[in-house]
Amino acid sequence: MQTEALSEVQVESTVARKPAIWETLTSEKYFKWTLLIPLLIVLAIFMVYPLLYCAYYSFHQWGMRGEAIYIGAQNYRQLLNDKAFLEALYRTLKVLVICVSCELLIGLGLALLWSREFPGENIVRGLALLPLLVAPLILSLLWNFMFEFDFGAVNLVLQALGLNKVYWWSPERALYTICFITIWQWFPFSTFVLVAGLRSLPRDVFEAAKVDGASPWYTFRRLTLPMLSPLIMIIVVLRTMWLIRLFDPLYGTTRGGVQTELLDWIVYRTAFVYFDIGYGSTMAIFSLVLTIAVCAVMFKILMRALEGAR
Amino acid sequence: MRYRGIVIGSLVVVLLLVCSFAVLAQEKFGLKDIPEIKNKKPINMIVETGAAWDKVIEYIKQFETATGVKVNIERVASPVVYSKENVELMAGTGYYDVVYVETSWTCEWSDYLWDLEELAAQYDPKGVEGFREDIHNISPVLLRCGQAYGKQMVLPFYTYHMGMFIREDVYNDPTEQAAFKAKYGYDLKPPTTYKELYDQAEFFTRKKGDLLKGKTLDHDLYGVAMMAGAYQINDEITSWIWGMGGDYATVVKNPDGTIKEFVITKKDKDILKQALTQYKALLKFAPAGCLTANFDFACAQQGEGFAIIQPHQFASLFTWTADLLKQKVPDGRLGIYPTVGGQPYTGAWSLGVAKATKNPEAAYWLVRYIASYDCQKVLMKEGGQFSARMDLLLDPEFHSPEVEYPLGIVCSYLVDIWQKQAPYVDNYWYFNTRAGGKVYEMQMNVLHKPMAEEVTIDECVEELVAKTIELTSKFDTVPIREE
Amino acid sequence: MKILFWLVTALVLFVIVAPLAWIYLTAFKSPNDIFTTEARKLIFFKPTMENFNRLFREFPFWDNFVNTAIISVSSTVVVMVIASFAAYSFARWNTGKGHLLFTTISTRMFPGVVAAIPFFVMYRNLGLLDTRFGLALLHIYFNVSFATFLLYGFFKEIPVELEQAAMVDGYSRVDIFRKIVLPLVRPGLAVTAVFCLVWSWNEFLFSFLFTRVAARPVTVLISSFWGSIEVQYGPMAAGAAIVILPTLVAAWFMQRYIIRGLTFGAVKG
Questions:
Q1: Chain B residues with CB inside 8 Å of A64's CB?
Q2: B155: β partners
Q3: Contacting residues of B for C37, CB less than 8 Å apart
Q4: Residue B459, Cα to own-chain centre: how many angstroms?
């Protein structure tokens, strides 16, 4: 009898203690942090570690063999004089500007076209979303073939239509071909975000403008665009973040040739083909700082735009 | 040209005779000669995708049955074999027992590989002698490529030695011959100098509606098809500079045969500059697609009948190109000749045994098995690749009238060119440096740039020299300098 | 006007669908019909199942397919749990005043190739190479930041008053989250899950490096049809045709949600 009673007490006390921690964790003060614990653990393991690793080796010369040699900031000096790297950087910015502006323009155009509900909308939307979801790497292998000069489907079609074949991978054109592939894959994103935006605009304001005799262009410039601006910011910020890391379309196509080497490709080559960990880390750190600087500004604007929209 | 044919022909006959005696004299090493393997730990290896290995893998199953050792095979795309294996080797995972090696990586990976003779001494009942006896049938060029500092680290199994593919039917056409002689003042024959190559490329570049062999062309015709994409251009340039007596760096040896240093001499740079200039000049006569072309599109150009000469192409692609040509241009016929200068790029995919393996015994025998006559025969007959074994290339089976074209003539070409090139291989820089794999990958990128008008040729040479020195001093212990 | 509308719509759809259709057509072609210069053969050819047969017979296609499915589903489940916790915290309390949220998102800006090497060394030490678990962990890492960001928008939409009312009713914080907030963001959870699933499904670099045989996902198999003497476009297209099917289905059924999800709560309704 006695032992039973004792154990009951013990059980009670453990039950009572557990909620004590539980209470603290879910208390008004700490609950918000409790919710973040799993995320912070993941980030600590997967982000802090490689970051420290790269920061360390960016001051060393090391090729994954033997001792790492401390060389101070020499890697960074080399980077700033590395013509190939700076050119890749410039090209990435070029791709960024081209792709973001094209996607926005195409997106806006199509969004205006599809702004009213129309029959068969589900089918159109279902099909148009496809490029967003197909593996970009697999596509790049197949695009390479489709854009081939003599055997590619695109030129065969052009020829059948009586047009001249186009050399899609010429040094002058290849970067734009890469842009095309990227835009092809991503324009549905901007289109449908903007379609959703247009449809949510308050009707009465536009009707009032119409009654006042405002021209369609005036309405578009003074009413539609400002109201869409938070969405346009979303598109710009997200696409910028992804485009800076553009890699997949190059993998199966030019592999960095014909003047298409982009930032991530040169990092890939250095870190993963030469296994020059020291210099590769330097590139990684440099490009991380750069992207964060660019994105931090954009992120601020975005958050403000989102707040404004609500 | 006839004369050349006779020389090669008689050479082949002689070698055939020698070889058939050899066949009679001794049995080849095969599955039955593998002694019982005591260590039964499974073996892991990587192989590339492609028809050749599809077939060989079936034969590896026989090895499994005979020895009781399980072989796990991982298949990857060939452009990424290097990165994939390198990570595992450098991180010391010890996962791969048998390592898939491109011959220019042999020195680089020599620290991770067993000296095969050491293993032979330990596991082979016939000892090192038995090992040597079998491998002396392998091409001397490729064997040397598979050595690091005098030690046999890997055994080659199929080669991609280069050659020049030409449209033999066009070269033999009397109207073309006459027209060429009239225009250039000498006979039309496969080019052996750059000037001839250039003249002929120019001569054969024609527009739709022009004549070829007296018939009207229904497509544009190009003199040459090349692979100027950022993927195989370096192999072409290598053939070019070797043929001119140059290299990416000159290997300077001590009296005792060890390597003293690498020097990028003035001559090396001049030759490289000249080679790039000539290569670029030749691109005028190539289809536009060549700027991004890899081997497949270059061969397809010739196979479709759009191009007359491939100045440098992997000999292993000859049969495929010839088959394609037969379908598209029924009276077309290809010929294979040494590249200009007679020193085409060479190398082979090879297999070695990883130092970190838990089962060196079985790994050694697997490498021997895949390099054996029987297994290589499968690779050739069913897989369509060209073996590194000369006894196999000279097997009468591959020289019967039905298969002499296209298969047999490639075999003869390879055996012939190996004999001629053997004295030079030892000094090729690729096969003496630990930075080979890295420099090779870098060259793809840098050498492509002047062709894509991204940099001038002078800038390209400058960059190549700087990067070669940078990578070599980072990854090799031998000093390197520029002269 | 109406004609113009449909004309443009049809043109856009053609541009989108044609390359995908080409993949499906190529999957049924023999090598000779693939390497051709006749435009006619793009559409008219003798279909063959050879590519599929080879894919199934000679390659562990279905094994790899199952790996992909297991890895992407399991990583998505974990991502959803972590991300919905975190996003709720960010949205309700603005934890870390925006800096922490930005840090989370910026994990996607670190070049994955470089991070891969330290991960590889770590994985070797932990024995996680070539395990589904190990790869799923990596997929969690690269999906979690975006999932958090995506969900943040949805949580932000929920009026605080609703929660305050619940608190008056005696609900605890945990109960509010479980019984009130989560059911309200169900569409957001659905769309985020679809995105994570698709990205994990399509991921290549980590999948390629961190697996060998046992845990290899199917994208790696498809990209491997690149031999040293031929690119096998037939089996490649056949593989791609099957692998993209689930994503096509997802696109079809989730279309409405996907679009709403991508506006980050900036659009109501």
A1: 90-91
A2: B351
A3: 304
A4: 29
C43: chain A residues, CB-CB within 8 Å: none
Distance CA C65, CA C241 (A): 13
C223 and C150 both lie in a single domain: yes
- Report CA-CA distances (Å) from C199 to A250, B70, B340, C116, C123: 18, 35, 50, 18, 22
| CATH number belonging to domain B2-161+346-425 | 3.40.190.10
How many other C-beta atoms can be found within 10 angstroms of the C-beta atom of residue B337?
Answer: 22
Q: Give the pLDDT confidence of C190-231 residue by residue, as tens digits.
A: 888 888 888 898 888 888 889 888 899 998 888 888 765 567
pLDDT digits (tens, 9 = 90+) for B103-115: 888 998 998 999 9
CA distance C113 to chain B (A): 12
The two tokens of residue A31 are 């609950």
Both C126 and C4 in a single domain?
Answer: no
Q: Answer whether residue C230 is part of any domain.
A: yes
Query: Which residue segment(s) compose the domain that C18 sits in?
Result: 1-48
* Same domain flag for C37 and C70: no
Scan for tokens 């960001």, then name that residue: C149
**Whose CA is closest to A107, among C12, B128, B333?**
C12
The two beta strands, B43-48 and B71-76, are: parallel
Query: What are phi and psi for residue B223, nearest 5 degrees?
Result: -70, -45
Report whether pLDDT(C89) > 60.
Answer: yes
Residue type (1 letter), C48? T
Residue C189, burial from CB neighbour count under 10 angstroms (0-12, 13-18, 19+): buried
C2 is a domain residue: yes
A25 domain residue, yes or no: no
Share of chain B above pLDDT 90, in %: 61
Tokens of B418: 């190996």
- Residue where the block lists tokens 């991503």: A186
Question: Angle at Cα B55 formed by Cα B50 and Cα B60, nearest 5°?
Answer: 115
d(CA B53, CA B92): 27
Summarize pLDDT for B432-453 with one digit per residue, the tens.
Answer: 999 888 898 889 889 998 998 8
- Nearest Cα to B242, choosing from B469, B430, B471? B430
Cis ω for the linkage preceding B406 (within 30 of 0): yes
> Tokens 């053969």, residue?
C41
Q: How far apart are CA B88 and CA B216, in angstroms?
A: 57
Q: C-alpha angle C63/C125/B350, rounded to 5°?
A: 60
A19-43: b (≥16 Cβ within 10 Å) or e: eeeeeebbeeeebbebbbebbbebb
Residues β-bridged to residue B167: B334
Q: Three-state SS across A111-145?
A: HHHCCCCCCCHHHHHHHHCHHHHCCHHHHHHHHHH
A244/A89 Cα distance (integer angstroms): 9
Q: Which helix (H) or strand (E) holds A84?
A: helix A83-113
Return the structure tokens found at B291. Answer: 């700027």
How many angstroms separate the CA atoms of C88 and C100, rounded?
A: 13
Question: Which CATH number is A186's domain given?
Answer: 1.10.3720.10
Q: For residue A233, report the phi and psi dihedrals to the nearest 5 degrees.
A: -65, -40
Cα–Cα distance for residue pair A240/A250, rounded to 1 Å: 18
- Which domain range does residue A173 map to? 79-309
Classify residue B155 by its DSSP letter: E
Query: C255 and C191 in one domain?
Result: yes
Among chain B residues, the shortest Cα distance to C229 is held by: B317
Candidates B54, B91, B294; nearest CB to C58: B54
**B134: helix, coil or strand?**
helix
Tokens of C84: 């919905």
- Kindly report the pTM of this predicted structure: 0.82
CB contacts under 8 A, B 124-183 vs C, are 160
User: Given an 8 Å threshold on Cβ–Cβ distance, is B83 in contact with A170?
Assistant: no
For chain A, how many structural domains are there in total?
A: 1
Q: Is there a domain that residue A197 lies in? A: yes
